[in-house]
Amino acid sequence: MNSVSKTYDLIIIGGGAAAFAAATKAADLGRSALMINSGLPIGGTCVNVGCMPSKHLLAVGDELYYPQHPRLTAVQNGRRPAFDFQQAMQGKNAMVAAARESNYERVLRSLEGVSLVEGKALFVSPRQVEANGQVYEGERVIVATGSSTRRLPIPGLDKVRWLNNVSALDLTRLPASLVVIGAGPLGLEFAQMFSHFGADVTVLEAMEQVLPREEPEVAQELQRSLEAEGIAFHLGVRVQGVSERNGRKVVTFSDGDHTHEVQGEELLLAAGVQANTSGLELDKAGVKLDARGFIQVDQYYQTSAPEVFAAGDCIGRMALETVAAKEGALAAENALTVPVRSINYDHVPRAVFTNPQVASVGLTEEEEMRRYNTCSCRTVYMDAVPKALAINEDRGVFKMVIHPRSSKVLGVHIVAPHAADLIHEAALAVKFGLTVDDIIDTVHVFPTLSEGIKRVSQAFTRDVSLMSCCVE
Q1: CA-to-CA distance for 210 and 231, rounded, in angstroms?
Q2: Cβ neighbours of 466 (radius 10 Å)
Q3: How far is CA 28 from CA 22, 101, 267, in A?
Q4: Which helix (H) or strand (E) covers residue 324, if one does?
Q5: Do 412 and 432 contact (CB within 8 A), yes or no?
Q6: What was the pLDDT predicted at 469?
Q7: Confidence label for 256 from pLDDT (cuts 50, 70 and 90)
Q8: CB distance 178 to 265 below 8 Å
Q9: Are the C-beta atoms of residues 184 and 271 closer than 8 Å to each other?
Q10: Positive or negative CA dihedral for 254, 257, 263, 268?
Q11: Which pick of 127, 135, 271, 373 has the fewest CB atoms within 10 Å?
Q12: For the purposes of burial, counting CB atoms within 10 Å of the CB of 443, is it exposed (0-12), middle (13-18) or buried (19 or more)?
């Protein structure tokens, strides 16, 4: 056994959002920390192969597609901007490099008492971690290794080249056609991105709706909007096999009664993730995994080993950069002080960055039924929002879930342009227990799409289809 090279207050395994938040918290507390990173460059999924590059390319796709399809009748004969796929990818790479330097590398250099080792980490004991042949000891250890695409047990998949979010962002040539397996957030964002670039896109989903975790009205409205742009959907299907024919990927699937096939130049797998825990030798630390392979933690992010905490995608709660960062900060604080802090996940907003966007916070109708055995819900569509009429926008829906007795806002679910920005009023309402009357009594700027939240609040008290714009 190698002798201990150095001892730290905190060892952090990983280099993404949760890890950086943990390192920052350790520095804030005046404690020493060692970050051990491998796999993706420093910054992890979000800056390298997730939020930042995908949203950059979605913006490129919007700039290309929507000028060709103007909403307003006064703007005739839409124009096609010049488009260079390779230049788009180069621009994405430049943006990623700049963001990684400014948001991660520069930040890491500024954190007093925090060191970085690049190398594969593995546990020697609950408090000892080996990397590059050196053994480091920590008073506490945080595992923040993230997640990656889960390989599905599809016959033939091992015989064809398939893409995930990492390899799709490294393409140097635009495929003429793309088959996407999975209609969750990642699958739909990449489907619209490549559709806007000019690819023929087909999406396959095992569940009966896109975005299976979202409200049915939300899923239906987004699907309607994407189908209007030419994306094809096959829902409630089982993929039976994958093969290659004449240089094209052939996906065979069943809808229960019949077997079909769809072909694409490329195949994107976007139907689930797995925790990046392989090779960590967690058993030597006494860290247990759940049935899905994610690290088991309590509400304070402490694992079955008292000295070891875990945060971010590897614990399998909410796979969001914002949540990973919050969990990482709380895990570090709990590890280095007293474990008393956690997240109320009901208060966390989330978004899908298609166009229109999807954004949600709080309870769904189904969850309210489960908790309270009743639901008080209202839904209004975009035609009830005056700003939408002014700009000829017909894509969107607002749904609100409130407490059946107190009328406190429990959940809001939106499809709309800029929904990810609109959701924060709802997030504050959910977090601070505001009622529908609180929303109605708040003067909103007119005309704005954010009035959709006020309109759906008013729907609990009146018929909003028979209401003047100026009714408070």
Answers
A1: 12
A2: 7
A3: 10, 21, 45
A4: helix 321-336
A5: no
A6: 65
A7: confident
A8: yes
A9: yes
A10: negative
A11: 373
A12: exposed
pLDDT of residue 382: 97
The CA distance from 470 to 191, in Å, is 40
CB atoms < 10 A from the CB of 207, how many? 15
DSSP string, 85-107: HHHHHHHHHHHHHHHHIIIIIHH
| Beta-carbon contacts of residue 252 (< 8 Å; ≥ 6 apart) | 239, 240, 241, 242, 243, 259, 260, 261
Is the whole model's pTM more than 0.90, yes or no?
yes
CB of 67 closer than 8 Å to CB of 79: yes
Q: Please tell me whether the peptide bond between 155 and the residue prior to it is cis, using omega within 30 degrees of 0.
A: no
215 φ/ψ angles, rounded to the nearest 5 degrees: -60, 145
Around Cβ 93, how many Cβ atoms within 10 Å?
Answer: 14
Cα 121 from Cα 6, distance rounded (Å):
15
b/e burial code for range 258-289 (CB count within 10 A of at least 16 → b): eeeebbbbbbbbbbebbbbbeebebebbebeb
The predicted structure's pLDDT at residue 471: 61
**Cα–Cα distance, 404 to 427 (Å, whole number):** 19
Tell me 163's DSSP state: B
Contact 387, 447 (CB under 8 A): yes
The tokens for 458 are 């008013």
What are 148's strand-pairing partners? 274
Q: What are phi and psi of 201, to 5 degrees?
A: -115, 135
Selection from 126, 115, 57, 120 nearest residue 89 by Cα:
57
Give CA–CA dist 455/122, Å, rounded: 54
Dihedral sign computed on CA atoms, order 42, 45, 49, 55? negative
Instruction: Kindly list the strands in the beta sheet with 248-254, ordered across the sheet, starting from the edge strand earlier in the chain.
Output: 238-245, 248-254, 259-264
* Residues in contact with 220: Cβ distance below 8 Å, sequence separation at least 6, in sequence order: 209
Q: Which amino acid is at 251?
A: V
Mean pLDDT of the chain: 96
Whole-angstrom distance, CA of residue 73 vs CA of residue 392:
9
Terminal Cα-to-Cα distance of the chain (whole angstroms): 73
Q: Tally the residues of the chain.
A: 472
Q: Is the pLDDT of residue 205 over 90?
A: yes
In 3-state terms, the chain is what percent helix, strand and coil (to 5)? 35, 25, 40
